[in-house]
Design goal:
Layout: E1 3-7, H1 11-22, E2 26-31, E3 41-45, H2 51-58, E4 61-66, H3 75-93, E5 96-101, H4 124-141, E6 146-151, E7 154-156, H5 171-175, E8 180-182, E9 192-194, H6 195-206, E10 215-217, H7 226-237, E11 244-246, H8 249-256, H9 260-265, H10 270-273, H11 281-286, H12 294-311
Parallel strand pairs: 1-2, 1-4, 2-3, 4-5, 5-6, 6-10, 7-9, 8-11
Helix pairs in contact: 1-6, 2-3, 3-4, 7-12
Length: 313
């Protein structure tokens, strides 16, 4: 058994922490406000940008899993100091730094996304995320830290709520047989990252020295459009068929006046206006984790949302 520190307890951090517990590890979760007790998990309240306190929390840890992210509209100002602090804690503690990344850094791409593509983001958030990994990778190359990044597409599955494009805006109306709305082209192929598969990759690379020093795409299933995913979810829920409506640009523009999240999504609209396909064959050729079959993803997601809906009535 070894100690793992997980920064952030959103969907990815929570899934990673709980998987580590199931695998027999000691887990310390770092969040700003802390949380109540949970079996196998020690919750610590501290600001992860405080590198000294974070390094103290990481002493003796085998790995630091960086799964935290500031609110979407504050990435530009808050992501760089957060990465700097996490890197400093990894250097002082000697723990492997496992960063949860995304695909924004590639920018608009024609064809499947592979890890060998250069960073070519056209927006602030993509450039900020690419720069964060570049800083960690530089420290790895200098021998000061051990770092690896796992990049994921849009989260999907149990535990994914407000931030998921197939979650809070889709599942509640879908379970009632009501139409759902979506960004971009509902028929464009799109890769979805099933949250348990992302957690498995974050845990696996921490213990695989040959994984360190580069970025990997989390195991990802076949690309399916929003309409195809909604059809499968509704069929599993027994509420289909459900209409899928594309949000008109005018409506999206008006809504963004009141929603910081929708305002920020303008920068990555290209991901939903064209095919957005992730190639994860490099990871699958080297490591054990595999994408969960889509039918299992669908079944588990519908079950989770049903249980959540019942609990909040």
């Amino acid at each position: 058994m070894s100690l793992h520190v997980v920064i952030g307890f959103g969907p990815a951090g929570a899934a990673t922490a709980r998987l580590l517990v199931r695998e027999g590890h000691a887990v310390r979760v770092v969040t700003r406000s802390g949380r109540g007790a949970e079996p196998g998990i020690e919750h610590v309240a501290l600001d992860a940008t405080d590198s000294r306190r974070l390094a103290e929390a990481a002493q003796g840890a085998a790995a630091i899993h960086h799964c935290a992210a500031p609110p979407y509209h504050r990435w530009a100002s808050e992501w760089p100091p957060l990465v700097s602090s996490v890197c400093a804690a990894a250097e002082e503690s000697g723990a492997v730094l496992v960063m949860l990344g995304n695909l924004y850094g590639y920018g608009p791409v024609d064809g499947p996304l592979t890890e060998g593509l250069p960073p070519a983001a056209t927006g602030t958030k993509g450039r900020v995320r690419a720069a964060g990994w570049a800083a960690a990778h530089k420290l790895h190359e200098e021998g000061r830290i051990k770092a690896v990044e796992v990049r994921a597409s849009d989260f999907f599955g149990p535990g994914v709520t407000d931030g998921g494009h197939l979650a809070g805006r889709v599942m509640p109306p879908l379970l009632r047989g009501k139409p759902v709305s979506t960004l971009g082209d509902p028929d464009a192929p799109h890769s979805w990252s099933y949250l348990p598969d992302v957690a498995r990759a974050l845990v696996e690379v921490a213990g695989e020295e040959r994984a360190w020093g580069r970025a990997w795409h989390a195991p990802t299933g076949p690309a399916l459009s929003v309409r195809e995913m909604v059809d499968r979810l509704a069929a599993q829920a027994g509420t289909g068929p459900v209409a899928v409506r594309r949000l008109p640009s005018a409506v999206l523009g008006a809504a963004s006046l009141f929603s910081p999240l929708l305002r920020e999504l303008k920068e990555i609209r290209y991901q939903f206006d064209r095919p957005f396909i992730v190639d994860s064959t490099a990871y699958e050729a080297e490591f054990a984790a595999r994408a969960t079959p889509v039918d299992e993803q669908i079944r588990a997601t519908v079950d989770w949302w049903r249980e959540r809906s019942a609990a909040t009535r």
